[in-house]
Description:
- The chain is an alpha+beta fold.
- The protein has one domain.
- It has helices at about 50-55, 60, and strands at about 1-5, 10-20, 35-40.
- It is elongated and about 45 Å long.
- About 5% of the residues are buried.
- The mean pLDDT is about 85.
Amino acid sequence: MIVDRGFDEKPRFYLQARAVDIDSSSFVAPVPITVVTDFAVDFCPWCGVTLRKWYRKAAEKLIKPGLKIPI
């Protein structure tokens, strides 16, 4: 789970999957691949709580600039 700022500058929670190490310049795939994909998550998938409300006091501290790879 990655916390970053959304388009509205509020904390946003993302699940991000990476196919290869971003610094791996020697990687050659025989077919085109998606290097990274992500999607925003608003609710906890297990209990359903709204993540922005649950983490409202700590969300700013959870933001790690540069960790989310832009697609």
